[in-house]
Amino acid sequence: MKRILVACGTGIATSVAVANKIKNIFEDKGIAEKVHFDTCSVAELHAKAPKADLVVTTAHNSKELPVKVIMGVSFLIGRGYEPVLEEIIEYLEL
Amino acid sequence: MGEKKLLDKSVINLNVKAKDSDDLLMQMSDVLEKAGYVKNSFKEAIIEREKTFATGLPTDFRGIAIPHTSTEHVNEPIVSIATLEKPVAFKMMGNHDETIQVDLIFMLALKEAHAQLEMLQNLMSLIQDQELLGKARIAESTDELMDLLGSYFE
Predict the structure, then answer these.
(1) Quick check: A65 contacting B, CB < 8 Å?
(2) CB pair distance less than 8 Å for B54 and A16
(3) ipTM value of the model?
(4) pLDDT value for B27
(5) Are the CB atoms for A71 and A80 separated by under 8 Å?
(6) Quick one: B9-147 is in which CATH superfamily?
(7) Span A73-93, mean pLDDT?
(8) Is B115 on the interface with A (CB under 8 A)?
C-alpha cells in the first residue's frame, strides 16, 4: 500500500478536493486499492510527510521534505493534470 | 437529505468595486460578519491566509479566486460570491510568481471539510465549466446568480 499525503494551506479545502479527484481517477484506472490517501495542512506536513510515499500539494511554499513533492493545482482546475498523473503513477510504480 | 444550502442572497454581491484583493477580502468579510456567518477574527485571518497560500485560479477568461481560512473563525458554513466591476490581481494558487486577474470570487466559510466534500467537488466542476462561469460573471441580479449556481452549493 502506497501512501499519498495531500496538503493545502488549511488542510480542509483544496487538499480534500484534490485527494478526492485523484482517488476517483485511480478508481477508474482500477488502481485505487493500491493507495491510501491522507490530507493535512502545510503546517502539519513536517510531522506527517515522513510516513508518506509522496506529497501532493496546492501550496506555494512547501518546505524541504524527506519525500518527493508534486504540485497538484492542475487537478483542481481540471486541466493540464495528465502529465502530473503520469508522474505520480510512475513514481509510485502503481 | 434536508441539507442546508450553502448560498444566501444576502452575502452575494454583484459588480463590487474593489481597489485590490485586500480591499475586496475586507468588504466580503464584513458582509459575512454582519450576517453572522463568521467571527470578528475571520477578516484578518482570511487576508493573512491569502498572502501565505494564494487562491487565484486561472480559467479560460480571466480568473476566479476561492479565498478561505481556518474553521475556528467560522460560525456557520456559507459560500459568499462576488462579481467585480473591474478585475483585481490575485496570486495564483501554488505559484505566487504568477498573478491572475480575478473578477469572480467564491469566499468559502467552511466548518469541516468532509461534511462539505460534495460542495468542494461541485466547486471543482464549476471551475471547469467555462460557459457557466461566463454566465455567472454577467449575472444581473442575485436571483439570477442563485438560479445559475444554486445546485452547486447544496
Answers:
(1) no
(2) no
(3) 0.90
(4) 98
(5) no
(6) Mannitol-specific EII; Chain A (3.40.930.10)
(7) 96
(8) no
